[in-house]
Design a protein that fits this description.
This protein is α+β, with helices and mostly antiparallel strands. It has a domain of 163 residues: ATPase, nucleotide binding domain (Nucleotidyltransferase, domain 5, 2-Layer Sandwich). 35% of the residues lie in helices and 32% in strands. The strands form 5 sheets. Strands 3-2-1-6-11 form a 5-stranded mixed beta sheet, sandwiched between helices. A 5-stranded mixed beta sheet has the order 14-13-12-17-18, with helices on both faces. A 4-stranded antiparallel beta sheet has the order 7-10-8-9. A hairpin with a 2-residue loop joins strand 4 and strand 5. Helix 4 crosses helix 10, helix 6 packs across helix 7 and helix 8 runs parallel beside helix 9. The longest helix has 26 residues. It is globular and about 80 Å long.
Length: 408
């Protein structure tokens, strides 16, 4: 069996799809696509027909890359008004603890959660305790009489989840699991610091910036501000009287996030909306960009201070905007030495706009490992001769898709 996994991130600017294969315990990229999105505003579906068309075209692009049809995905859902609640559960065990025992203890914890009118997305185990004595991350194979767990139940408003699921079902895409982008970001960059300290990740998207707090490797709070990369495009468009698409291209091809790293002798010629020829100086352009980036980062910093009063030990910034040349200098001026710019280590997908997509695949695989389950999203008979290797609640979302908690 070839272990193939696909992750989908429906963004305001782009539909991102990442396909990976787990081979010899290493995750390898097979294909990544970023297709212009329509009908999506601030991460929410606002026009079903336009959004459906964009997603269909994105999948067609990824299918053409691979030469096979992808129709099963892990889908991220909007994390507006996400709720992170601590839940606990314990069960009696008889001797050696199995993965089934782990799942049963999580199921007990889920049932203890009060209904807050939101939809459960996932449960993130914090730790497990055996006989109230030994605390571990993975109890499978250990012996005891009582297995307890502390976990974070992650839930979102029902419309966040069902708007995505119903749209994908409509176009023939099967959702095998759902997640949030801030969970994906964590698993893209997770290291030993995250397991031991209080950390944060800031994801600057096209229209929103999400700030999330992680305590010992588990997301516990998040907040969203309605500013992102498109605000920079608006600023450039306004200052030079050029259209938004030209502003976006200028930002990516010529702009630098820190004006101190720009060159005052570098200029480009453009035609504005009045059909006038203008010269754009790189230093002046970068001052416009830097001003907006500083504003967004300071707003995110204020959000982090609101989310926790404790000292944050480690901060990572990701999202497409963080790829800009000179971005790290602006980030350091706002946050100091604690800040790091995201760095996806997977060959072929270095751009931080893919961090959530890549991380949600890693997260999905970690759940399979916890459950000791073997699974692939592309069957061998669907692969043909394509050589990849070497290059329970019935009314809940989780009850209808891949059974993480329940042995379906």
């Amino acid at each position: 069996m070839k272990h193939i996994y696909t992750s989908l991130d429906i963004g305001s600017e782009n539909i991102k799809i990442v396909v990976c294969e787990l081979y010899k315990n290493k995750l390898n990229l097979l294909a990544a696509s970023s297709f212009k999105s329509k009908g999506i505003t601030r991460g929410l579906i606002t026009d079903v027909e336009l959004a459906s068309m964009s997603i269909k075209q994105a999948f067609q692009e990824i299918n053409d890359m691979l030469g096979i049809k992808i129709n099963k995905v892990i889908a991220s859902v909007p994390n507006y008004l996400a709720d992170y609640s601590i839940i606990k559960g314990d069960i009696d065990v008889n001797g050696q603890i199995t993965s089934d025992d782990v799942m049963k203890s999580l199921e007990v914890a889920i049932k203890s959660k009060k209904n807050n009118g939101k939809e459960l997305v996932t449960v993130l185990p914090i730790d497990f305790k055996i006989d109230e004595r030994v605390t571990v991350k993975d109890p499978v194979g250990m012996n005891g009489k009582v297995l307890s767990n502390r976990s974070i139940a992650v839930s979102v408003p029902k419309k966040n989840a069902y708007s995505v699921l119903s749209l994908l079902e409509k176009i023939g895409i099967e959702v095998v699991d759902i997640s949030l982008n801030n969970i994906g970001d964590l698993y893209s960059f997770k290291n030993k610091d995250f397991d031991k300290k209080l950390c944060a990740i800031i994801n600057i998207g096209a229209e929103t910036t999400t700030s999330s707090i992680y305590n010992k490797g588990v997301v516990v709070r998040s907040s969203i501000i309605n500013q992102g990369g498109k605000n920079i495009d608006h600023d450039i468009s306004y200052m030079y009287k050029i259209d938004m698409e030209t502003a976006r291209k200028v930002k990516h091809s010529f702009g630098i996030a820190s004006h101190s790293k720009a060159s005052s002798s570098n200029t480009i010629e453009l035609t504005n909306k009045n059909n006038e020829s203008i010269k754009v100086n790189q230093t002046e352009l970068s001052k416009i960009i830097e001003s907006r980036v500083e504003e967004m980062l300071n707003l995110a910093k204020n959000d982090l201070n609101t989310l926790t009063r404790k000292k944050i030990d480690y901060i990572i910034i990701t999202g497409g905007t963080s790829n800009m040349a000179g971005f790290e200098y602006v980030a350091s001026s706002v946050f100091g030495k604690e800040v790091n710019i995201g760095n996806i280590k997977m060959i072929g997908v270095r751009n931080n706009k893919y961090s959530s997509c890549v991380g949600n695949i890693v997260y999905f695989i970690s759940k399979l490992k916890l459950k000791e389950k073997n699974y692939t999203m592309v069957d061998d008979d669907e692969m043909g001769d394509y050589a990849l290797s070497g290059n329970k609640s019935s009314d809940s979302v989780l009850g209808k898709i891949f059974g993480y908690f329940f042995n379906e």
